[in-house]
């Protein structure tokens, strides 16, 4: 399947340049459709000399006739065609299907994380290039289209299709955009604080969307209270896809596979209900950790995923009443330790030299070990200082991106302010303590040797390897 698109990008030239590079992958750019023009009459039009797509680099290079001037603001317009892939190749736009009344129904979704927005439209496709996005989707009359923003208006076109226009998004990264076209019914709830939560699923299973909708309201309000920040996106659509696999925190349009969103007590055991609670919590946490404040590059992905994974336990426990910390210990810590002791384990902050390596960042370390580092920090700082630090982090970096040092600096500052002392009686230095934790794989085993003749105790630290031990690691209090 294919689609047609048109993009209009507003850019400011930070310095004079005769070349503009945009990310493009698997798109066919229409001849003569590439146009640049200044937004005001005083700025000269640089004109386009020619353009080419550098497939190997997933870039499009626009060569200008005259240089764009420093400080000049320009519009670039491009028309293009792209591919809607089957749902098992979830890169860019994908189509999914399900049988109903003896016929096959087709729906569409998207997966742009980490580097697939460039398959949907030409753009600056790295998390640090945040922008606002105004989206219009053209659909058949009997379908519903969804985007990150709320619907503004629907217009009937001459060809009988409907053009839906959506509210402009907050400043955000391209990987968090989403597009969906479905023929689903939905359930809706509006929380006390005004978050509009809708869950969309095919008609045969829409009743099973009730649970995910019901828990989302107290969860999002808990996150709002805990962070002290009303999320800039108060519209939360969740859409269940029949065969597509995954869950993705797109800002305003979270997409799930059915088995991670729908729950019916006659289908599943409580385990599945817990899994759905976990996943819904995880994706909502990203609205603050990941969407409002994003990792600067994919090597720092743990700043998104560590928080979302850790909050699975915190948010589950408080508003939903699950034994959150116990669950997360069993479901995350034990499997994570098993993976991390292997020689193939990658560090929490892996080396991601190019966009083609971005998928490598999604590892057990990024999620699980990142979460347990935050758990250690939570225990060292205590609940009040931890919350204070997270509020400061979110406020300082809202609509921006961060690296680990930004987070450590916030924890360091709170340790000084709140007199949280470490060894030597000095305020805890998180940069020093945790940089080895994020850059090395494996985790330490402490060995204690007691010598009864000299009355000396010797401690040694080495990389943990379960095959060297006769006993599993224990916790002593
Ligand atoms: Zn996540």
TrEMBL record:
The keyword Transport does not apply. Binds 1 zinc ion per subunit. One of its GO terms (biological process) is proteolysis. One of its GO terms (cellular component) is extracellular space. The record marks 367 as: Transition state stabilizer. Keywords: Aminopeptidase, Hydrolase, Metal-binding, Metalloprotease, Protease, Zinc. One of its GO terms (molecular function) is peptide binding. Its cofactor is Zn(2+). Residues 1-176 form the Aminopeptidase N-like N-terminal domain. Residues 211-417 form the Peptidase M1 membrane alanine aminopeptidase domain. Zn(2+) binds at residues 282, 286, 305. InterPro entries: Aminopeptidase_N-like_N (IPR045357), Aminopeptidase_N-like_N_sf (IPR042097), M1_APN-typ (IPR034016), Peptidase_M1 (IPR001930), Peptidase_M1_aminopeptidases (IPR050344), Peptidase_M1_dom (IPR014782), Peptidase_M4/M1_CTD_sf (IPR027268). The active site is at 283 (proton acceptor). Belongs to the peptidase M1 family. This is Uncharacterized protein. It comes from Capitella teleta (Polychaete worm).
């Amino acid at each position: 399947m294919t689609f047609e698109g048109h993009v209009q990008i507003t850019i400011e030239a930070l310095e004079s340049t005769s070349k503009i590079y945009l990310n493009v992958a698997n798109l066919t750019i229409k001849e003569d459709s590439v146009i640049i023009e200044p937004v005001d009459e005083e700025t000269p039009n640089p004109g386009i000399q020619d353009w080419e797509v550098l497939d190997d680099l997933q870039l499009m290079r626009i060569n200008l006739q005259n240089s764009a001037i420093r400080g000049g603001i320009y519009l670039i317009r491009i028309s293009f065609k792209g591919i809607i892939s089957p749902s098992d190749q979830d890169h860019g736009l994908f189509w999914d299907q399900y049988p109903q009344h003896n016929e096959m129904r087709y729906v569409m979704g998207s997966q742009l994380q980490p580097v697939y927005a460039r398959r949907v439209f030409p753009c600056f496709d790295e998390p640090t290039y945040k922008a606002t996005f105004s989206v219009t989707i053209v659909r058949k009359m009997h379908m519903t289209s969804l985007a990150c923003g709320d619907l503004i208006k629907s217009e009937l076109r001459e060809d009988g299709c409907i053009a839906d226009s959506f509210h402009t998004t907050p400043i955000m990264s391209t990987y968090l955009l989403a597009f969906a076209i479905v023929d689903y019914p939905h359930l809706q709830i509006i929380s006390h604080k005004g978050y509009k939560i809708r869950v969309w699923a095919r008609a045969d299973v829409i009743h099973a969307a009730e649970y995910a909708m019901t828990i989302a309201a107290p969860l999002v309000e808990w996150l709002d209270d805990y962070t002290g920040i009303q999320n800039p996106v108060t519209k939360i659509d969740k859409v269940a896809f029949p065969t597509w696999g995954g869950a993705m925190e797109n800002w305003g349009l979270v997409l799930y596979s059915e088995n991670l969103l729908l729950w019916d007590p006659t289908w599943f055991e409580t385990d599945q209900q817990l899994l759905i609670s976990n996943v819904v919590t995880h994706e909502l946490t990203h609205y603050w950790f990941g969407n409002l404040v994003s990792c600067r590059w994919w090597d720092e992905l743990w700043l998104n995923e560590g928080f979302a994974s850790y909050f699975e336990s915190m948010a589950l426990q408080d508003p939903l009443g699950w034994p959150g910390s116990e669950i997360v210990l069993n479901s995350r810590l034990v499997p994570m330790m098993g993976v991390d002791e292997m020689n193939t384990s990658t560090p929490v902050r892996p080396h991601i030299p190019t966009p083609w390596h971005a998928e490598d960042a999604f590892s057990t370390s990024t999620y699980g070990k990142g979460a347990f580092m935050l758990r250690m920090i939570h225990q060292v700082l205590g609940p009040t200082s931890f919350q204070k630090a997270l509020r400061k982090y979110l406020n300082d970096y809202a609509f921006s991106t961060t690296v680990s040092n930004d987070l450590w600096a916030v924890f360091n500052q709170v340790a000084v302010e709140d007199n949280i002392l470490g060894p030597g009686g000095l305020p805890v230095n998180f940069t020093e303590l945790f940089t080895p934790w994020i850059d090395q794989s494996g985790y330490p085993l402490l060995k204690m040797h007691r010598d009864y003749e000299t009355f000396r105790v010797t401690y040694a630290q080495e990389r943990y390897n379960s095959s060297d031990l006769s006993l599993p690691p224990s916790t002593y209090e």
